[in-house]
Amino acid sequence: xxxxxxxxxxxxxxxxxxxxxxxxxxxxxxxxxxxxxxxxxxxxxxxxxxxxxxxxxxxxxxxxxxxxxxxxxxxxxxxxxxxxxxxxxxxxxxxxxxxxxxxxxxxxxxxxxxxxxxxxxxxxxxxxxxxxxxxxxxxxxxxxxxxxxxxxxxxxxxxxxxxxxxxxxxxxxxxxxxxxxxxxxxxxxxxxxxxxxxxxxxxxxxxxxxxxxxxxxxxxxxxxxxxxxxxxxxxxxxxxxxxxxxxxxxxxxxxxxxxxxxxxxxxxxxxxxxxxxxxxxxxxxxxxxxxxxxxxxxxxxxxxxxxxxxxxxxxxxxxxxxxxxxxxxxxxxxxxxxxxxxxxxxxxxxxxxxxxxxxxxxxxxxxxxxxxxxxxxxxxxxxxxxxxxxxxxxxxxxxxxxxxxxxxxxxxxxxxxxxxxxxxxxxxxxxxxxxxxxxxxxxxxxxxxxxxxxxxxxxxxxxxxxxxxxxxxxxxxxxxxxxxxxxxxxxxxxxx
Length: 496
Prior knowledge:
The structure is a single chain. The protein is built from 16 helices and 18 strands. The protein is 38% helix and 24% strand. The protein has helices at residues 8-17, 63-72, 87-99, 140-156, 173-185, 212-219, 227-241, 279-292, 297-311, 322-335, 345-357, 374-384, 397-404, 413-421, 438-444, 480-492; strands at residues 22-27, 29-42, 49-62, 76-84, 102-109, 115-122, 125-132, 160-164, 190-193, 207-208, 245-249, 255-259, 263-266, 362-367, 389-395, 428-432, 448-452, 468-472. Mean pLDDT is 89; it is low at 1-7. The protein has a 9-stranded mixed sheet, with helices on both faces. A 5-stranded parallel sheet has the order 16-15-14-17-18. A 4-stranded mixed sheet has the order 3-2-6-7. The relative contact order is 0.09. By secondary structure, the protein is an alpha/beta fold.
């Protein structure tokens, strides 16, 4: 059965409700470090490339990346696990503080070192990975602290639990089973991101999210990535381990859900795939959030699949952001002809900050765009070519009336916005009610501010909040006023 497209309720959930969720993440916490550089020669000491390091970046990894995804989806997140008492632990704390993750459940142990994965990249190509880790089951005192922490959260009110198992020691058989029993006792979903061939310790969970390789390992066989084989393995595992929902991530084939009531396939949404690392963490986070928010299963899978499509288009471990996912869902809603809404100022500001953090250049322009014509399209296409993302600030109906008189606009603001957003060159549309977009530009702070016509850069409103200003000439012979005058003339002549 092919998954139906999600309705507008998914977008509404992400825009208005997901921020109210409280979710605990338990598992093997790691620090991912990326050493970015360039390769221009081979070492004279050995036949290996020499990578000149230009920058170092540290991000949350393992179970902490699941928490980071939930935090950037703007859920309230509680992190439980074990690390060492070392410099990498302090780096983790700094990153969790920045993400807004509560890490009171992250036990600091003098007996361990913080698990760290170091990657060296030349350009966008990973050259080397070094793992620093000490694996082993939790000590009794560590289990006691984690158990007390989770019990307190459950008593205070949780909406869901994710267990992120990387086989480093936190997710022992007995501890996993205890967590699953707690979820049942408090009537909240427990999702497992599994590791290893034996799923006995995950028995009775609400969701499990293996990738194809992990699904094959659990099934004890190697199968092709086709629908029939995946469904067969998932059904067998669901029945054997009494798991309510098995969700298999299948790379370019998307995702497959097998539950007691339905089987569905959700096709992949990514256009370009640069790096699949961390995609499973994103699926776990988005899927559990949707389930905790009481979305139907089909919609939960759809949301998780769209989220995964965003992160695989990035290089390195990358948590999906709520506003980025919301923009993606609104775009898809538009393509499917469903209800339309523009992004709020807060949402566009957050989305712009996300793009900037990824080093992606933002272009901003604005206008009334009443009766969109080829001149508008040509202008917007030229603007879009100046950067990675084009944001259009659109005058509201009230703003247009104030600027152009009571007879304008001819087209309602949401209709104008929807037509603009349908253009391939436009990434986002946001309404503003003022005579000029200065306040909006201050929120977005684009790299390039574009204006059309015979303006001089020093005359453009909001220029002080942009990296630079560029003026683009309008197409000769095209204007909304000209279109209106032609229609009026034809009516007057009785030709229309």
